[in-house]
Amino acid sequence: MVAIGIVYATGSTIYTVSLREGLSRVIVEKVTDANAEVPESTLEVRFVGQALGTFIAWPTHLLKVISKKHKV
Fold it and tell me: Model's pTM, two decimal places?
């Protein structure tokens, strides 16, 4: 585990860029390994430590659900 975040089921873009199939829209809330490379790097974010508080694309098969919360 390199980070904890929230997966957003709605929305198919991040900053106007469409997500490819197999990727999920995630916002990183806590970093546990700042030096781990993100699987889908951008010009701004190459390492998990740079992604804190940011929406990033993350391969869906690499996500592990630890809690399900629904906003009303």
Answer: 0.80
